[in-house]
Amino acid sequence: MAEEIWGSGLWDQISKRCEATPSHTMVIDENDRSIDFATYFQECEAVASGLLELGINAGDVVSWELPTWIESMILVGALARLGVIQNPLIPIYREKEVGFITGQANSKLLIVPGKWKGFDFQAMAQSIRSDRSNLQVLICDKKLPRGAISNLPPANLDTSGRLRWLFYTSGTTADPKGAKHSDQSVAAAAKAMADSLQTTGDDVNILVFPFTHIGGINWLMAGLACGFTQVIAESFLPDQTVDLISKHKVTLAGSGTPFHSAYLAQHRANPGKKLFASVRAYPGGGAPKPPQLHKDIVNELGGVGIVSGYGLTECPILSMASIDDPSDKLATTEGRASQGVIIKVVTLEGKVAGIDEEGEIRVKGPQLFMGYLDSNLDDDAFDEEGFFRTGDLGSIDSEGFVRITGRLKDVIIRKGENISAKEIEDILYLHSKIADVAVVGLPDSISGERACAVISCKDATDPITFEEMTEFLKYQGLMIQKIPEQLELVDVVPRNPAGKVLKHELRKRYS
Predict the structure, then answer these.
(1) Both 272 and 399 in a single domain?
(2) Count of helices and strands (H, E) across the chain
(3) How far is residue 21 CA from its own chain's centroid?
(4) Residues 391, 482: one domain?
(5) What's the burial of 239, exposed, middle or buried (CB within 10 Å: 0-12/13-18/19+)?
(6) Among candidates 103, 144, 149, 95, which has minimal Cα distance to 123?
(7) Are 426 and 338 found together in one domain?
(8) Whether residues 456 and 495 fall in one domain
(9) Terminus of the chain with fewer CB atoms < 10 Å: N or C?
(10) Rounded to an integer, what distance in angstroms lies between the CA atom of residue 361 and that of residue 161?
(11) Together in a domain, 267 and 397
(12) Residue-wise pLDDT tens for the chain (511 aa)?
């Protein structure tokens, strides 16, 4: 079992892991390419030297928009070796977002693939560069520049308190917001996750969501600290992913509601096959989970079920369930506050909430970001006591377990009465015909807002009807005022790469 190691910064952590377990496999991809920790260290240094030859130095901002590749992980280590400020970009971003971000961040280098998933990233990058004489472009198709390690300057191992990361949150009606993080704030989130899951060097984690998401970097840091193996794939394909889980004896199968639902569907489509025999836990996050999904996974797939965390780009893993928590708490909460995190719940009337009383979640903690790159956004982001305003609604019970009940914008106000979208969603998910559901509030000239249920059915040839939905909700005891007045059927409920439902798109589509 590998010893847990946390460095003073990311490069220090990489160096210490290489010394501790050099021959242990660090990462395996879907094509069976793999590297151990010693090779990872060597590759990081060689690529750092190659980037140095391109004029990249400590303090420069490098934006990179790459799939979940081994080379992406190597790039992270190389940039950490140089002391660069890293700006990972989720591959769904296009010219509008990437142009804005690289301009605001004053990026010196933009790294993209040539073409990927039918999109010409190279053409996009060159178009952005045409308006920015100081921006370099590097095309990476699983090949990074390399140089002589002897050319590297001494490494700065202690990065305490220094800006090392710019993670952008997706804008809905405005431009994306750049959250400033240090190695230490990202590592605090990774440690909270590792502690909750009790990870060891014997674990095998599958990482199939965008590595450029802050959660991907959290998993990289946790893997380096605990010495476990990562299995990665550049795209989430349920058949392929389940094969990888079985083949490599994955023990941690994340990482959110869409993934867990897909695992359950694959299990049900292959009766008699033990596809998940090695899995001990299903880490979750990014979006609320239906309690029934946890129960189904425990009963059908085994293990402890979904062990989910709660956080935002600005403050990841501010709470997380533990594998030792009771199953009912795993099903209905996001665990307790992570070590060092202080959570304050404030009611809509502005008062500090009591036990089990709903309000806005506000936080302080070691994983809290350093503020936005656009400092004009900070005043609205923090309250008068310095707590970050998450915009999420929730409550804390008498044992300290955190429940997320929705977003401030997710409260549907019908004839002056507050209706929780999540409450309706959790009940609808129990219906045998429903695969996925989102409830949104739409403008209504009479009631102010009306609830609209957007539903994806398990069998498109046998969809749920409005009458079935209504009767089911009545049978489940939902008060009449909360029953949705509109039903929309879709093939797929739209979600972002982290699994969050794109409710702003649904409001726009059905208003």
Answers:
(1) yes
(2) 15, 26
(3) 28
(4) no
(5) exposed
(6) 95
(7) no
(8) yes
(9) N
(10) 25
(11) yes
(12) 567 999 999 999 999 999 999 999 999 999 999 999 999 999 999 999 999 999 999 999 999 999 999 999 999 999 999 999 999 999 988 998 999 999 999 999 999 999 999 999 999 999 999 989 899 999 999 999 999 999 999 998 888 989 999 999 865 446 789 999 999 999 999 999 999 999 999 999 999 989 999 999 999 999 999 999 999 999 999 999 999 999 999 999 998 888 999 999 999 999 989 999 999 999 998 777 889 999 999 999 999 999 999 999 999 999 999 999 999 999 999 999 999 999 999 998 999 999 999 999 999 999 999 999 999 999 999 999 999 999 999 999 999 999 998 878 777 878 767 788 988 999 999 999 999 999 999 988 777 789 999 999 999 999 999 999 999 999 998 888 899 999 999 999 998 776 788 888 999 999 8
425 shares a domain with 391: no
pTM, to two decimals: 0.86
In the chain, the amino acid numbered 88 is P
Same-domain status, 369 and 425: no
For residue 5, tell me if it sits in a domain: no
Domain residue limits at 503: 419-510
Residue 432 lies in a domain: yes
Token pair belonging to 334:
């996001």
Q: Which residues pair with 452 in a beta bridge?
A: 440, 486
**How far does Cα 191 stand from its chain's mean position?**
15
The residue type of 121 is: F
